[in-house]
Amino acid sequence: MSTQMLSYTNLNTPIHRLTGVTKLIFFILWALTAMIIYDTRCLLVMLVLSLIIFRMSRVPFQQYSFVLYLILVFFVINQVAIFLFSPLYGVELYGSQHDIVHIAGRYTLTWEQLFYQFNVALKYAVVIPIALLFLLVTDPSEFASSLNRIGVSYKIAYSVAIALRYIPDVQQDFQNIAFSAQARGIDISRKEKLGKRLKNVISILMPLILTSVDRIEKISTAMELRGFGRNNKRTWYKSRPFQKGDYAALVLVIMVAVVSFAVTFADGSRFYNIFQ
Question: Which spans are transmembrane here (predicted)?
Answer without folding.
Answer: 24-54, 66-89, 114-137, 247-266
